[in-house]
Amino acid sequence: MELKVVPLHLNKKYLSECCKLINDEWKRSDTARLRSLESSSDSLPTSLILLRNDEIIGHLKLSPIPSIRDGCFVESVVIEKGLRGKGFGRLLMEKAEEYCKNFLQLKTIYLSTKGQEGFYNKLGYMECQPISIYGNCMPLTSTINCKNENKTKEDFQGAPKPPPLPANSFNQNVKTYMRKDL
Predict the structure, then answer these.
(1) Is the CATH number 3.40.630.30 carried by domain 3-139+171-181?
(2) Residue 151 pLDDT more than 60?
(3) Ranges for the N-acetyltransferase domain (predicted)?
(4) Among the listed residues 84, 110, 85, the one whose alpha carbon sits nearest the alpha carbon of residue 181
(5) What is residue 116's DSSP assignment?
């Protein structure tokens, strides 16, 4: 069994297969997905694909972070559903780290995940502050200005209480941000 990780932009014959692999996990129009995949280049963004005997079985995208020049953001990490739990995700991530360090000369990799924290911890990733790939770091908490900011507790006496939140509502869509120094 031959396994290799290669940049998608140097292997364009895999574009449509890669589109299908990612869309099987996260639905998006083929046109939008293909446009995103076609932006892969030697400088970020870069899509890396995992091939097994010249068949695509995995993908990840490395995106630039404007506020962190020596880092990148890993997104759209996916392994074919029937092949998960067999070490292919680990291999893809390790090869991506080598690519980032040796080819792109980066020092840090960031990512966000929902539910895969254990997998990334095993690879050496640690939780960190949320970051934005569109600009500056995002604070964990923010001040919200609202019309009632000058009112006191007494001003709200007699107001109905809000309904309770569903169980685990705070954890359902919360991303965990992680980083690894190379």
Answers:
(1) yes
(2) no
(3) 1-145
(4) 110
(5) -
180 Cβ neighbours under 8 A, 6+ residues apart: 97, 108, 109, 123, 124, 125, 126
pLDDT at residue 165 tops 70: no
3-state secondary structure at position 113? strand
Report how far apart, in Å, the C-alpha atoms of 130 and of each of 18, 46, 50, 55, 161 are.
28, 22, 28, 35, 32
Do residues 11 and 4 lie in contact, with contact meaning Cβ atoms separated by under 8 Å?
no
Number of helices (H) and strands (E) in the chain: give both, helices first.
4, 7
User: Predicted confidence band at 119 (pLDDT cuts at 50, 70, 90)?
Assistant: very high
**The dihedral sign for the CA sequence 84, 87, 90, 94:** negative
Q: Is 7 exposed, middle or buried (0-12, 13-18, 19+ CB in 10 A)?
A: middle
Closest to 21 in 3D by CA, of 1, 35, 37, 10: 37
Sign of CA dihedral 145, 148, 154, 160: negative
As a whole number of angstroms, the distance between CA 20 and CA 28 comes to: 10
- Confidence band of 137 (pLDDT split at 50, 70, 90): low
pLDDT of amino acid 7: 98
Report domain extents, the chain: 3-139+171-181
User: Which backbone phi and psi does 111 adopt, to 5 degrees?
Assistant: -160, 170
